[in-house]
Amino acid sequence: MALQGTGMLIVGTDIPAAWEEEFNRWYDREHIAERVGIPGFLSARRYIAVSASPKYISFYETEDFAVLSSPSYKQMLANQTDWSKKVMANFQNVKRQVARTTAGLGAGLGGAAAVIRLRPADNDSATAREALKVVLADLVTKDGTLAAHIMESDPELSKPLAEHKDAPKDAPEAKDWIVLVDTTSAEVAAAAAKAVSSASLPGLKAIDSGTYALMWILGKPEL
Question: Would you say the pTM of this structure is higher than 0.70?
Answer without folding.
Answer: yes
